Amino acid sequence: MRRLNLPLWLGVVVMFAGAFGYVYLFSRWPVTRDYPWTAMLLFAVALVLFVLGFRRAQRKVVPSIVIAISLGLMALFCFEVFVGTKWIPASKASPAPGQKAPDFTLADASHRNVALSQLLATPGTNGVLLIFYRGYW
User: In the chain, how many domains are there?
Assistant: First the structure.
């Protein structure tokens, strides 16, 4: 009677939890979004489970295929996170460092509209520091 190779299939579940957990859960907080350490930790656990499952298997064909596909998906995830995110196109309309910014109006922390020209016209102001975040939060 054949037994279920629990470490192998648990490794697949942990691998998918690492990849999809980063995308749908861990990308919400800066500590887990900036570097996907949670996904890497889960991938390491999945690799250990794959080794245990491969050693436990009586026939090595199915575990080899499952592990190869899982390693390919882990490699694709790592490529997208570490290389693909660097391929953000440059913004052609953004001002260069040191260039005068066009006048605009935004809401401050008190939800009042403040114009750039209004901040520059304040007595004793030498300039305004503008920081643009290219984020999605």
Answer: 1
H or E stretch including 68? helix 61-82
Q: Would you state the structure tokens that stand for residue 137, as one six-digit string?
A: 């939060």
The answer to whether position 121 is within a domain reads no
pLDDT tens-digit series, residues 7-27:
999 999 999 999 999 989 988
Contact status, residue 74 vs residue 15, Cβ threshold 8 Å? yes
Q: Is the pTM of this model over 0.85?
A: no
With a cut of 50, list the residues of the chain below it in pLDDT.
Answer: none
Q: Find the angle CA(93)-CA(90)-CA(117) to the nearest 5 degrees.
A: 35
Domain limits at 77? Answer: 6-86
In a domain, 98, yes or no: no
Q: Would residue 124 be called left, alpha or beta, if left means φ above 0 and alpha means ψ between -120 and 50 degrees? A: left
